[in-house]
Amino acid sequence: MTERTTALYDAHAVLGAHFTDFGGWQMPLRYGSELAEHTAVREAAGLFDLSHMGEVWVQGPDAAAALSFALVGAFDTLAVGRAKYSLIVAEDGGILDDLIVYRLAPERFLVVPNAGNAALVAGELTTRAAGFTATVTDASAHTALIALQGPRAAEILATLVPEEDHEALAALRYYAALELSVDGAPALVARTGYTGEDGFELFVPDTRAAELWDTLLAAGLTRGLIPCGLAARDSLRLEAGMPLYGNELTRDLTPFDAGFDRVVNLAEGHNFVGRAALEAARDHRTGRRVLVGLRGEGRRAARAGYPILSEGEVIGTVTSGQPSPTLGHPVAFAYIDPEFAAPGTPVQADLRGKPEAFTVVETPFYRRTR
Fold first, then answer.
1. Mind listing the pLDDT tens digit for each residue in 316-366?
2. Nearest Cα to 129, choosing from 220, 62, 226, 45?
3. Cis bond leading into 355, ω under 30°?
């Protein structure tokens, strides 16, 4: 498979990025120190290229109804200007992807799937919208996505927004979006992110991406802003207790396995693809492993695929794990047998033949001070 590059590839190369393959894309893993990039987002600000993500528009009189049928949530009551986290599942209830849906007008929605699943989601939405008066347009190839994350993100972004829009930007709520001019470029500005910090995701035409990237870095130069790669994004999202598709969420799991009961709308009269299977899964989940957070009691981290033990018996498997730079101890996600899932339960991770003490804890591991 030919690896793809974003409109910002050359900008990353100039900055000395170390690249990695991610979902068929060549993406910056880090520019220098992963720890420095992680810390910058927690203490000041970081800039991420997320242009490998998908952007799929669903528009028309039945757009809300089409999305309510295609995904596990209901979108007719989603207010214009707000966003909603959701899942798309197969007929058997298996998770195909997790995604965010933005409602920008009564009949206009933007769906943002993960990079490796963008084409699949666009195809599924097209198929599932066939019986509705709605059109599905995959704009991923022409859209760039830049994430500005951290406690100084709003301060930095305000320098590039017209003065008459400063009040609207400051008032923008979490999981909300508005269309603004940013450094003269038309942009959808969303107060969303994947780091556990305040921040924004900027959707812009890919032809304006490189210029905006450089301008943002210049605007943040004296405010602690640095470019950040996927390594820091992964450690930040893990601390914030956010799942990653392919790790915590997979085709073989249902939303209930991952603890996303609140995301699935099983209200009477709400029909969607996979509903029957999810109703059955909800009512017959006894014995299925559940997703939990783990805190390491020592210094050694558990990694994806490592077994979780209790009294020498395997009771689960780690899906994500690493040292937490912010908290100073290892953290991990794992699927474990439900009888061991209560917070405070001691378990061990098998770290290549050596057991290491962990404790089941509630997530997120890290919560920012507001």
1. 999 999 999 999 999 999 999 999 999 999 999 999 999 999 999 999 999
2. 62
3. no
164 three-state secondary structure = helix
**Which positions ≥6 away from 269 have C-beta within 8 Å?**
none
Displacement of CA 303 from its chain's centroid (Å): 20
Are the C-beta atoms of 290 and 310 separated by less than 8 Å?
no
Burial group, residue 214, by CB count within 10 angstroms (0-12, 13-18, 19+): middle
The model's confidence at residue 287, banded by pLDDT at 50, 70 and 90, is confident
Please name the amino acid found at residue 359.
T
User: What is the rounded average pLDDT of the residues 83-101?
Assistant: 98
Between β-strands 185-190 and 199-205, what pairing exists: parallel, antiparallel or unpaired?
Answer: antiparallel
Three-state DSSP class for residue 295: strand
Q: Which two tokens stand for residue 149?
A: 């994350």
In whole angstroms, how far apart are CA 43 and each of 26, 153, 198? Answer: 28, 11, 11
- What token pair was written down for 37? 């990039």
Helix ranges (DSSP H) in 172-292: 209-219, 230-239, 275-283
End-to-end Cα distance, the chain: 44
User: Contact at 8 Å (CB) between 289 and 256?
Assistant: no
Q: Could you give the count of Cα atoms lying within 13 Å of 17 in the half-sphere of its Cβ? A: 24
7-50 tens-digit pLDDT: 999 999 999 999 999 989 999 999 999 999 999 999 999 999 99
| Strand-strand pairing, 177-182 and 56-59 | unpaired
Indicate the burial class of 39 (C-beta count within 10 angstroms; 0-12, 13-18, 19 or more): middle
Which residues are within 8 A (CB) of 342 and not within 5 positions of it... i.e. 6 or more apart?
360
Nearest to 326 by CA among 240, 199, 207, 226: 240
Tokens 């100039």 belong to which residue?
Answer: 14
